[in-house]
Amino acid sequence: MRALHRRPRLRLALLLSAPLAWLIVAYLGALAALFLSAFWTTDPFTSDVVRTWTTANFREVLTTSVYWHVALRTLGTALAVTAVDIVVAFPIAFWTARVAAPRYRHLLVVAVLTPLWASYLVKAYAWRTILSTGGPLDWALKPFGLSGPGYGLPAVIIVLAYLWLPYMILPIHAGLAGLPDDVLDAAADLGARGWRTFRSVVLPLVLPSVAAGSVFTFSLSLGDYIAVQIVGGKTQLIGNAIYSDVTLDLPLAAALGTIPVAVVVLYLLAIRRSGALDSL
Q1: 131 burial type by CB count under 10 A (0-12 exposed, 13-18 middle, 19+ buried)
Q2: Which of 73, 147, 219, 255 has the greatest count of CB atoms below 10 A from its CB?
């Protein structure tokens, strides 16, 4: 009897083994190749990669102040984008999960997903037009004596927050939709008002979902460089530094590329205990 129960599990394991093996080879293999190439060097005359073992690239990354400033600016940008998305996504997710009529909730989720179907470049260049000098945002703010942020770091944060917002809304929506009504009713019966209920009941229960969404917004912002090139002006983040070094000094670019990978790994380890990884 036990052997009969084990056969479906064995078949499922065999079916999943191939995708898992491909994931290990394609993803972890690529990371291993990146880390290995960071220990090589470059011919100063031809810019060809020389497979000579050296730690000079890591020493340069760790001792050059420019790279430190770029890395800290990138980290701050990723955290700012994540914070903006949390603030914007929470009321939207609360409306779609708890306030809207049940028959409309699926349509609202589809509406949240719709921007993901549009091209990344189309959305980024649309924001470039919006943020341009004399553009729609300047025109809308002109009666109030204000102007848009133009191109620069604030524009990068705005655009990245817009691009990754659905990845924050969906986990929070799922967390709010799964809240038991009995818990909210009990908080109301005990005299807790709206803000107290949100702070003491809703937020602790939905925090894993918020952390799960932050995994996407933080990691995607950490490695993005296209939006920075489109609306960043003179702003340089670590993705741009890697992109500029790829053709001239591939091992140095690989050493720089290990920084966001290490930061994301540390970030995942930091939120592991919150249960966020179980909400992905």
Answers
A1: buried
A2: 255
Q: What angle do CA 266, 37, 26 make, to 5 degrees?
A: 70
| Domain definitions of the chain by residue range | 65-279
pLDDT category at 164 given cuts 50, 70, 90 is: very high
Please state the pTM of the whole predicted model. 0.85
Model pLDDT for residues 21-76, shown as the tens digit of each residue: 777 777 778 778 888 888 988 877 777 778 888 888 889 888 889 999 999 999 99
Provide the angle, in degrees to the nearest 10, between the axes of the packed helices 65-94 and 153-177: 40
Name the one residue in this structure whose structure tokens are 């530094």. Answer: 241
Q: Which of 119, 205, 200, 213 is nearest to 170 (CA)?
A: 213
Q: Regarding beta strands 49-50 and 41-42, do their DSSP bridges make them parallel or antiparallel, or are they unpaired?
A: antiparallel
Structure token digits, residue 149? 């942020």
Q: For domain 65-279, give the CATH number.
A: 1.10.3720.10
Distance CA 62, CA 171 (A): 36
Question: Could you tell me if 127 and 50 are in contact, meaning their C-beta atoms sit under 8 angstroms apart?
Answer: no
Which residues touch 38 (CB under 8 Å, ≥6 apart)?
57, 58, 251, 254, 255, 257, 258
Structure tokens at 173: 């929506």
